[in-house]
Design brief:
heterodimer, A: 161 residues, alpha/beta, 3-stranded mixed sheet, 24% strand, B: mainly alpha, Ferritin, globular
Chain lengths: 161, 206
């Protein structure tokens, strides 16, 4: 008999296909795990709706759960329950170590252009706050591009949503 | 609060409402993607490609919800209808001649879409409200991009002229009642958009 805890542990080994340093559990996209006899039901909340990694994540979660000898059932929940605030502290640290600046906390309010153009963003390489917005958009929907004036390094800043 | 857009709608009515929004996002996503590789500078190439990806992602989620109500699939709704069956507004269909028109449409669309999303978020249908709120988190970045360009171009007569030219078409974004027929640009776009899908033998599973 598989426990929910064992399923969570297994899912914590499923990497984000685009940024494999972070797992789906670190990302906070696994909302709930329920074990019902030989079946495991997982509620999965997508990050960005146009993210091509979502199908891969779902398939990998199903494959990993199947390895536990139970039948996986991953339900994609299209509601508003995921925000970048759901990324765990451990996940944020893994992102930073890999050269991605983790998202600013959203709190209650949506981000603004004034914030993006402010110096509230730290370079993941040298730690300087002397960084500038290069592009609101980046190589994937989840990231913006910034430039560090201190170490002269462009870097990818996770968007806050 | 019951949204005026959702009051007294049957399940069929909800699907038709969702289809109108999904069609807007799909078709505009296609038009935005036409700047990939040919935008005036590299950062806008990246920006419009990313915006296009978001819009098409929103369309897919909306089609999936509509498809459940209608007993079909998101792909069939997105690609297998005749041009006259699409419910998009004319503003998103147009193959626009230049950058000032593209930015004018972007500004007009994002403003109207924000109004539409705010109404959907306030609706008493939890599925529609939840999805609209999720979409709105991403659209916040499109609005920032549109605002940034509006400020940059607001003193340019060509931009002002483009805004005035397209403004009458923008009212139909937030009000589906004002949608009336399509431009020839839609049929042309659908021809390209569905070319690969139509080239496959019947019964192909994707």
């Amino acid at each position: 008999m598989v426990t929910a805890e064992q399923v969570w542990d297994a899912l914590s080994e499923v990497p984000d296909p685009e940024i494999p340093v972070i797992s789906v559990v670190d990302l906070g996209v696994v909302r709930d795990v329920r074990v019902e006899g030989g079946r495991v039901h997982v509620e999965f909340t997508p990050t960005f709706l146009g993210c091509p990694a979502l199908e891969v994540m779902r398939d990998q979660m199903e494959a990993r759960i199947a390895q536990l000898g139970v039948e996986p059932e991953v339900e994609v929940v299209l509601d508003d329950s995921w925000s970048t605030d759901r990324i765990t502290d451990e996940g944020r640290e893994k992102l930073r170590a890999a050269g991605f600046s983790p998202p600013a906390r959203r709190g209650a309010a949506a981000p603004t252009l004034v914030q993006l153009e402010s110096n509230g963003f730290r370079c993941p390489y040298c730690g300087s706050r002397d960084t500038a917005l290069e592009n609101i958009f980046g190589p994937t929907p989840c990231r913006s591009l910034r430039y560090c004036r201190s170490c002269r390094q462009p870097f990818e800043q996770f968007k806050t949503i | 609060m019951v949204s005026p857009m959702l009051r007294n709608v049957s399940e069929q009515g909800r699907a038709q409402l969702l289809l109108g929004i999904a069609d807007d996002e799909l078709i505009l996503g296609w038009r935005d993607s036409e700047w990939t590789g040919v935008a005036p500078f590299l950062e806008e190439d990246v920006a419009f490609s990313s915006i296009a990806q978001n819009e098409i992602g929103h369309a897919r989620a909306l089609y999936e919800l509509a498809a459940r109500d209608l007993g079909t699939t998101a792909d069939e709704l997105a690609f297998d209808r005749r041009p006259a069956e699409y419910r998009c507004a004319q503003l998103v269909e147009l193959r626009l001649p230049g950058w000032e028109h593209t930015i004018a449409r972007h500004c007009l669309y994002e403003a109207a879409d924000a109004e539409r999303l705010a109404r959907l978020i306030a609706s008493d249908d939890p599925e529609v409200a939840g999805l609209a709120a999720k979409i709105d988190r991403e659209e916040a970045y499109h609005r920032m991009h549109a605002d940034m360009w509006f400020d940059r171009l607001s003193g340019e007569p060509r931009f002002q002229a483009a805004l005035e030219e397209l403004r009458p078409l923008a009212t139909a974004i937030a009000d589906p009642e004002l949608r009336n027929g399509h431009t020839p640009d839609l049929a042309e776009l659908l021809e390209v958009m569905t070319e690969v899908r139509r080239s496959q033998p019947p019964g192909t599973t994707w």
